[in-house]
Structure formats: C-alpha cells, structure tokens
Design a protein that fits this description.
This protein is α+β, with helices and mostly antiparallel strands. The chain has one domain: Alpha-Beta Plaits. It has 5 helices and 2 strands; from the N terminus they run αααββαα. It has a two-stranded antiparallel sheet with strand order 1-2. Helix 3 crosses helix 4. The longest helix is centred in the C-terminal third of the chain and has 13 residues. The radius of gyration is 18 Å and the shape is globular. The N and C termini lie far apart (44 Å).
Length: 101
C-alpha cells in the first residue's frame, strides 16, 4: 500500500506503483530499427504514435520492410511470454500517413 507507514523491503516498490514493469521494458518498436539493419534494409522509422509506427521506405524495399516489421511486432512478447491469442500487425502503405490508412 502506498499510504502504509511500513517501509517497503523492496526499494523499487513505490516506483512500480507509478510505472508497471512492462512499461520499463524495451518496447517492440525499439527492436524494429536493428531488425531492419540486420536485413540490410534502408527503411527508417520516423515516428511512433501510440500503437502506430511511421516509416520512410524505398519503394523497392516495401514488401521486405513490411515483413520484417510484421515479424518483430507480432512476436513482441517472445521469448518472455507465449500468447494464446496471436498479435496481429496491420500494415498500410501510401505516400503519406492519411493514405496509408
């Protein structure tokens, strides 16, 4: 309890109440740029807004980039957690954000 007068045996416990442990872990979007580099793709992640990622991608690399991003995002919990319901990453493309939806 945060209002308790007892001292917590774990010094991080009050911070856990404000920021749950998953929020402190690396988000899947952070794993995308290294995966693109490993695949030798030139795509750049420009922006993340909540659960949407925006990339600048050479047209010739569009399919390969989409597959790498899809793999990273759909396997975001692995290997720490195996989900019984799969994550699905929707990918839209277009010359701008509005047309990609």
């Amino acid at each position: 309890m945060l209002a308790s007068t007892e001292r917590s045996p774990l010094p991080h416990r009050p911070s856990m109440a404000r920021e749950p442990p998953p929020a402190r872990r690396a988000t899947p979007s952070i794993r995308v740029p290294p995966a693109l580099a490993k695949a030798r793709l030139c795509a750049r992640m420009l922006l993340q807004v909540h659960d949407e990622l925006l990339f600048e991608v050479p047209e010739a690399e569009l399919d390969a980039t989409a597959e790498v991003v899809r793999q990273v995002m759909e396997n975001a919990c692995a290997p720490a957690l195996e989900l019984t319901v799969p994550l699905v990453a929707d990918i839209g493309t277009g010359p701008n954000w509005a047309e990609a939806h």
